[in-house]
């Protein structure tokens, strides 16, 4: 009986000692199966290995950055043609309001006012930043190559008064109060050449406002705007409006549809 008890105690001790030895073996002086020298060697190896990987990664990034231009995108073959956008901003591209309820169109008016402020005449008085490009469509105004020098380019003045009834200068509600709302259409900023927009005898975006040189060289750039005023809307009936811009660089993409259009619904209630 005593012999049996002693063997059980011995087994427990061996089992306990085996569990402890997985972490520290006092006989071989090993921690987790490795000596101090072995841990030092493998630590140095992994430090050098990961430092080498980090060096390759950082070096690749630096080489890539050296090939990039700060003025324009390096690869432009996958850049879609610039699309149209309009103001006021509207949820789901639907403008719905009651002409006798100012609160129903207050957000639209605020959106237009905030955007149009940058086109005030008093903000375009600096002749070092702005120039008169004429009231009629003209060809490009050559301002040099994108990376020819680091000097900032002048921007064409565009007065909000050009929008006439949609300028918000006389009618501060942009026609919403009368049930004749305005939309302001703009072309998203494009770096580089735009070959042609509009048709002879029809309204469009004048070419003298292009090309755009980017934020660094063209920080005061003002996009030309087109104002659309709806003067004969039928009350309580939705009107679907689609605007398009035409040019040789604008093509239909089978995966993404038409990049150069936008559609909006306008509904006016009594």
Automatic annotation (TrEMBL):
Entry protein name: Sodium/potassium-transporting ATPase subunit beta
InterPro entries: Na/K_ATPase_sub_beta (IPR000402), Na/K_ATPase_sub_beta_sf (IPR038702)
The organism's place on the tree of life at top rank: Eukaryota
PROSITE patterns, alphabetized: ATPASE_NA_K_BETA_2 (PS00391)
Membrane-crossing residue ranges in chain numbering: 44-68
Family as reported in the entry's similarity comment: Belongs to the X(+)/potassium ATPases subunit beta family.
Cellular-component GO terms for this entry: sodium:potassium-exchanging ATPase complex
Subunit structure: The sodium/potassium-transporting ATPase is composed of a catalytic alpha subunit, an auxiliary non-catalytic beta subunit and an additional regulatory subunit.
Keywords: Cell membrane, Disulfide bond, Glycoprotein, Ion transport, Membrane, Potassium, Potassium transport, Signal-anchor, Sodium, Sodium transport, Sodium/potassium transport, Transmembrane, Transmembrane helix, Transport
Stated role: This is the non-catalytic component of the active enzyme, which catalyzes the hydrolysis of ATP coupled with the exchange of Na(+) and K(+) ions across the plasma membrane. The beta subunit regulates, through assembly of alpha/beta heterodimers, the number of sodium pumps transported to the plasma membrane.
One GO BP annotation of this record: intracellular potassium ion homeostasis
Subcellular compartments: Cell membrane; Membrane
Region of interest (Disordered), residue spans: 1-21
Membrane topology annotation: Single-pass type II membrane protein
Gene Ontology MF term list: ATPase activator activity
Source organism (scientific name): Poecilia reticulata (Guppy)
Keyword Cytoplasm applies: no
């Amino acid at each position: 009986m005593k012999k049996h008890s002693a063997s059980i105690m011995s087994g427990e001790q061996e089992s306990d000692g085996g569990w402890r030895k997985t972490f520290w073996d006092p006989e071989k002086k090993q921690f987790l199966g490795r000596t101090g020298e072995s841990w030092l060697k493998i630590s140095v190896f992994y430090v050098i290995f990961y430092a080498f990987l980090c060096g390759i990664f950082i070096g690749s990034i630096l080489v890539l950055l050296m090939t990039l231009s700060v003025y324009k995108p390096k690869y432009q073959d996958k850049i879609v043609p610039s699309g149209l956008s309009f103001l006021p901003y509207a949820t789901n591209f639907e403008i719905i309001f009651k002409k006798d309820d100012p609160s129903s169109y207050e957000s639209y008016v605020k959106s237009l006012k905030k955007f149009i402020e940058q086109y005030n005449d008093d903000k375009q008085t600096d002749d070092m930043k702005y120039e008169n490009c004429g009231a009629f469509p003209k060809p490009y105004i050559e301002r040099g190559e994108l990376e020819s020098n680091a000097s900032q380019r002048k921007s064409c003045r565009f007065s909000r008064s050009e929008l006439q009834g949609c300028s918000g200068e006389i009618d501060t509600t942009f026609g919403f109060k009368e049930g004749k709302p305005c939309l302001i259409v703009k072309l998203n900023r494009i770096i580089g050449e735009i070959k042609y927009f509009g048709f002879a005898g029809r309204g469009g975006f004048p070419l003298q406002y292009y090309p755009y040189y980017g934020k660094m060289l063209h920080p005061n750039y003002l996009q030309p705007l087109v104002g659309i005023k709806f003067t004969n809307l039928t009350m309580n009936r939705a009107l679907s409006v689609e605007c398009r811009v035409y040019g040789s660089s604008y093509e239909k993409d089978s995966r993404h549809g038409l990049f150069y259009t936008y559609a909006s619904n306008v509904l006016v209630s009594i």
